Amino acid sequence: MHSARLPPMELARTTPERLAGAVLLAPVHLPGRTMPKGARLDGTTAAELIGAAPSFTAAIRLGWPDPGDLHEDEAAARLAGAVAGPGLGAGVPHQSRIDLAACWDGVLRVDIAALADLNRVDPLEVFTLFHGQAVRAGQVVASVKVAPHLVSGAAVEMGEAVASRAFPLLDVAPYRPIRVAAIAAEALTTGGLERFDTAAHGKTEALGGRFAGTTLVANEEPAAAEAENRAVLERLVIKEQIPLVLVGGVSAGDPLAPFYAALRSLGGELVRRGVPAHPGSMIWLARLGDSVLLGLPQCGMFSMATAADLVLPRLMTGERVTADTLADLGHGGLLGKEMRFRFPAYARDLEAPEG
Fold it and tell me: The pTM is what?
């Protein structure tokens, strides 16, 4: 881009042909209307600007594109198309900014490393909500922008290349109608089973899932409890092949819990004991065959807002949650009231466990 200041007298002597294709670098106030900064001049608007020159008291600032330069709106549109996956819809440009909104309820996915690489390309800008955040259909989850009114096409191509390698750099994974069952595996306080069952049912269906009910394992004698847990897992996971099982009442800190012995006896494995987030740091994740088990140390905790409400939405999209996924929860893992925006709508007004 090359630019110039045209004082009112010089502007009055110029021709529309000279100004056509130029971009305003600052707004210009005309009788009855304002031409905004970033506006591209054509023959008609150039003639209007020249005609109004005698009324101006300051120079008009203009930029002309060099070969290969793009207007800000075109650059933003290309950038939006490059970074957005199928779960995002692009709005219209406004001052070189284009918002990207979720096409459906789900979980925002951001390739954080690629996002940083793209934002290192001067003067491209892409900014988002948090990776892993639960979002709703129509919610703006990201925006793309460029700073100058005319941008080097080469810079946009660099950004497109980064986005292409990471595609989709941004996306919203929709919730799936996953079948979910629950196990209340140890002794419960009064009303605990009812709260657990109600919360498991409500949270599952709020995320588009199909709840298959809660099974109570009431035996407290270790050997009998292990056998009962094993029988329940065989039925839910091996026979019925339910892909997600919520487990209440099994502490991540108690390796002697009969449930863990039952899980090991069937070839299951613990993926992570505890997560770096509070409240809910004692939740755990396990796998048995193709099924995932999400556990909480107390059944009553599931009726509250905890780190489980960051993990459950991701599981309900079909994401393969790993130990690395859970390790990443440490950044932003202090889940006080000010962090509730990251939770699904059902959890934003729930109480949190004490301590």
Answer: 0.91
